[in-house]
Every structure is written in structure tokens, then in C-alpha cells.
Amino acid sequence: MADRLAQFAACTVWVRVILLALLGAAAGLGQAPFDLWPATVLALGALFVIYPSSLTGRQAVLHVWAFGFGYFAFSLRWIVEPFLVDIARHGWMAPFALVLMGAGGALFWALAAWLASRLSPGRIGVLGLLLVGAEVLRSLILTGFPWALLGHVWVTTGLAQVAAFGGPHLLTLLTVICGLAVAGLARAERILGLVTLGLVVALSFVMRPGTVPQPTDDLPVVRLVQPNAPQHQKWDPAYSDIFLNRLLQRSGAGDVPDLIVWPETSIAYLLNHIEDDLTLLSDAARGTPLVFGIQRRDAQARAYNSLVVMGPGGQVQSLYDKRHLVPFGEYIPGARLLGQIGASGLARNLGTGFTPGTTPGPVQIPGVGPAVPLICYEGIFAEEIAYGDTRPRLLLLITNDAWFGQAAGPHQHLAQARLRAIEQGLPMVRVANTGISAMIDARGRITASLPLGVDGAVDAALPPVSPATTYSLWGDMPIIVLLLSLTFVAYFNGKRDSD
Fold first, then answer.
1. Which of 69, 263, 286, 478 has the most CB atoms within 10 Å of its CB?
2. How high is the pLDDT of residue 121?
3. What is the DSSP string of 27-96?
4. Does pLDDT of 339 surpass 60?
5. Is 495 noted as a catalytic residue in this protein?
6. What Å distances lie between residue 493 and 120, 123, 498, CA to CA?
7. Catalytic site includes residue 189
8. Of 386 and 53, the one with more pLDDT
9. Cα(434)–Cα(403) distance, rounded to whole angstroms?
């Protein structure tokens, strides 16, 4: 092992960067759709073995940044898909977007490496804990982007149930602990490494939720309707009525369910323009509550990305406006500020996009109960799901994953929806424009689904609610306190050993 590390250290800096970037990409295989969590654990273990061989703090930062770049560039490769919808106009931006996302995500890990090199040089335990802290920071700073967290690799395993106690960051801590255990196997702590990995594997088997129980007759039946409107056709006037007719036909067929759900922006018109025609939707729903996504404008001409709960007679019974918007996708950061300081021309050219909503929900669904509304991007923020003192009946996520293409993006978005259900102990109704639409129970199991690229509908019983989880009551605060405590302990132990 020492000889191999010496050979690695003897390589030129660019060779080391490339090798570590490839190792980081291998770590990304743990994310959906591959779900190869051992690849993530082994790659992290290799990073922790290599890290102490860095000759200087600057090298340590560069090594960890290169690993992070490979991880994020591979895991977030779907980011190129939106630029390929209109490839003639926007295709040239795709490689820049991928590089920027990879480099930007890696900066958080590089910050962890820099802090580790200042606090306790060469100690992999401190680096590991600071990497978890970096993932927490990445989830929160600059509106946050908690996509492809290291903890997401456990979604398809029994360890995913740990999210009910500590959310996604506790899962990330477990990932890092496993990586440190693998590093221990390659170093002097073989017994400790084997015991740690054995305990994690045992915990995974113990916490497996088992098979989905058979639904009972008293559970509401929800119809998930997926029109499969490709993004390049979705807003084309020649196709908008075709997709609307698909929704209407699928909604009005067969037995009458208790709730019908359509995806985000499923209607290609402003709500303001079709208020007199909502009876057409109500007739198709046959009196059943209908949830659909649509855009609207208020009296000040501000645009909103909205979710509507419609009752009999086309009456809008609840309205929710998306609160957490996508930077550069649904609004341009700073555009309004530019207008306020006098640069109105530049602000007008940039565009202000959508306005964030101010009402958190839940929305009331007649015959079903209160639902926590989530529109697309909002489903990735575990810490933002809130509903006050009254426990809701379900999480309700409508999305348009057509932007993500047919590869990794929709699968990773679905994986995060499964975690939200586990964290809150609530069933999740997830309806996507092009898929994957799914009914998810409170343990994160998929009970019914529609695959990618399919026009169809599926009726599924709404699973029961589980008791309130620790995470739903306390959020991220316990894991943040635990991380700070462990980091201080690791730091002072390292300082004592060096003295």
C-alpha cells in the first residue's frame, strides 16, 4: 500500500487530478439509476487512504476538489438535458453547465479539505466529518442545492429508514463512516473497519421495511395521470390541446376515484384565461377533486407556478403558488435588485421570471384530507417541508421531469421523493409529466407507478400515515449538533495525539 501511495504521489499534478476525478465519478455510481452504493463507499475509502499522502495543505484541497468534481460532474450529468431541448439555440451551453455544476459542487468539498488541513492535517476522521458538514452547507447556502447528497445512495436499501430519525444528512454521515471503515481496512485499523462495516450491513437488514401490505377497502383511491408531453412540444400550440385531451380522457375513464392528480403545468394556458372553462375539467373528473399544475398572473401581472385543487362545478377550492423557485430556471437572481437600483433596462433584459408564493400550505382535498403541496424542485428540500401542528394526510408532489430527459435525472428526483416520505412518515403522491409517476408509502416503498415516456394513468390506494417521525419533529438540528460534537472530539483527540 505504501508503495502504491508513493507511486501516486510521484505522478504529475494533472495525472493525480485526472485519477481522482475518475475515482469521484466511480463514487457517483451509487446514485440512481445505478444504485451501486458499494462503489460510493469504496471510492470514498480510496480517497481517505490517498488524502494523508498529500504533501501540503494545498495538495489536499486540490485532491479532494478533483474527487468532488468527478463525483458531481457524473452524478449531475442530466444538467445538460435542458439545453438540448432547443439544441440549435442552447446546445452550446451544455458542456459549460456541466463543468460549472461539477466545479461548484466540488468547491464545498474543497472547503472541507481546507478546514481539515488547518485544524488537523492528515487526519481522515476530521476530513470525513467536515465533508458531511459541507453537504449540509451545500443544502442550505444560496437557496441550497441538496441534489446527489452522499446519503442518497442508500435509498434502495434498508438504511434509507434511518432518514426517519436524522434525515438525509444522517445518511450522509453513515456513508462517510463506511468510507472511513474501508480506509481502515487498508491501514492499521482492520478489525475496527470490519466491525463498523458489519454493523452497518446488519443495520441495513434489520431496518428493511419488507413487502408492501395489501391495501384495505377504506383507503382513498388516487388516479395518477401522466400525459407524456415532451418538453419541446409541451408549449407548442399545435400540441397543447392534444396533451389536454389525453388528460381529460384518462381522467374520465373507468371507475370514479377519490382524487385525480395531474402534473406540473399540465395545462398550457394561464389560469386567468380558462377560469370560465374549468367546468370542462370538472365534467371529466365526474365530481372528483382534481389537482393540476398551471401558471397564473395576479392583478399586478406577477407570474406564479401554481397548484390548483378544483372541486365540483369547476370551483377552485385551494391554490398554492410555488415558493422555492429554481435559480436561473424560474427566475434570475438579482434581476429585481437591478431594477430597484436604476438598471431597469438590464433587469428587463434578464427578466424577473416567476414570483415566489408566500403561503406554505397544506391544501385541503375534500374527502381525503390536508396535503403538503410540492412543485418539482421543492421536493428536494427535506428541511423545508412544514405543515404546522396538524399532521397532514399526504405529501403531494407534481413535477415536470421532461426537462431531465430519459436518463439519470428523473430517477434521482424520484429517489429523493421516496426519502421525503420516509423522513415525514407520510405517503407521497408523485405525478410527473413524462414520468416517473408513483404512489409511495410512508416507508418509501413504491406501491404503484408509471414508467418514463408513457402516456397513461394508474389508480392506487393512498397508503396510511405512519406515526410522526423524529425528523418530522426535530428536523436537522440533532444531526448538526452531533456533527459539531464529533468534529470537536476528533480535533481534540488529534491535537492530543500530536502533543
1. 263
2. 82
3. HGGGSTTT--HHHHHHHHHHHHHHGGG-SSHHHHHHHHHHHHHHHHHHHTGGGGHHHHTTHHHHGGGHHH
4. no
5. no
6. 10, 10, 9
7. no
8. 386
9. 9
Does residue 11 carry a catalytic annotation?
no
Polymer length in residues for the chain: 499
Q: Measured between alpha carbons, how far is residue 253 from residues 223, 457, 459 in Å?
A: 10, 10, 11
Q: What's the pLDDT at 158?
A: 96
Query: What three-state secondary structure class fits 138?
Result: helix
* pLDDT classification of 352: cutoffs 50, 70, 90: low
pLDDT tens readout for residues 25-44: 999 999 999 999 999 999 99
**Arithmetic mean of pLDDT over the chain:** 90
In whole angstroms, give the CA distance from residue 472 to residue 165. 8
Q: Name the catalytic one among 178, 234, 376, 378.
A: 376
pLDDT at residue 493, as a whole number:
72
pLDDT given at position 350? 41
Q: Is 292 left (phi over 0), alpha (psi -120 to 50) or beta?
A: beta
* Neighbour order of strands in the sheet with 290-297: 316-321, 303-310, 290-297, 259-261, 221-226, 456-461
How many Cβ atoms from other residues are within 10 Å of residue 477's Cβ? Answer: 9
The residue extents of the domains of the chain are 2-208+476-498, 221-323+358-468
**Per-residue confidence (pLDDT) for residue 384, from 0 to 100:** 93
CA distance 78 to 195: 37
Query: Which CATH number describes the domain made up of 221-323+358-468?
Result: 3.60.110.10
Residue among 81, 178, 234, 264 flagged as catalytic: 264
pTM: 0.93
| Listed residue (423, 427, 417) closest to 465, CA to CA | 427
Q: Which of 322, 330, 378, 383 is catalytic?
A: 322
AA letter at 187: R
